[in-house]
Amino acid sequence: MPSVKIPRKSTDFDMTPFVDIAFLILSFFMLATKFKPPEPVEITTPNSVSSEPLPENDAVMITIDKNDKVYFSIFSEKDPGVFDQIIKDLNTQKNLNLTNQEMVNFRKTASVGVPFSSLKSLLGVAPDDQKNVNQPGIPVMDSATNELVWWISEAQSAFSGKALRYLIKGDAKSKYPTFEAVVSALKRNDQFKYNLVTAPEDVPANSALDVFNRTQPADAKK
Fold first, then answer.
1. Half-sphere CA count of 222, side-chain side, radius 13 A
2. With contact defined as beta carbons under 8 Å apart, do 175 and 55 qualify?
């Protein structure tokens, strides 16, 4: 019987479509990635063993630097309109006489650390240049003029119906009276839960938590 010849086929593949897909995926991640906004001041936080990540949306950050200056920041990616509501309400209630452009600048303001009397001057500077502005901090030490109370109140109204989280980020060298004034501003708005932002570190060896983690089954740790 005549032998049947099996035609030979090339084993080469055209990799061009795969390269195109790789570049498309790379471009997507480059364009979709959101970088962390700049902080108003450098904060050296105390260490802790907590590993809970910081929320990136629907949160208020209250920062205390080493000189006990207080700053107010808002995290809201899904609804940027909350920035407009907060600054418009404050403009009306505190008679700030802000222009439309100054209120627009508030959307991109990384953090506010000035009294209401200086807010117009801060927002009059382009957001990219505000890092060069010397901010004295929001007044909080006098309970009668604790301006942080107003910022928290307006944030509550703007995020009405949403689960708003409060974060306090204090420098390790900041003093307790300032922290107490910040907590007082939260309490005056009926906010009794907040998260302290710390620098995570490993669990101390042979501590009670370390022994607990090592003795737990693998399924219980998940």
1. 3
2. no
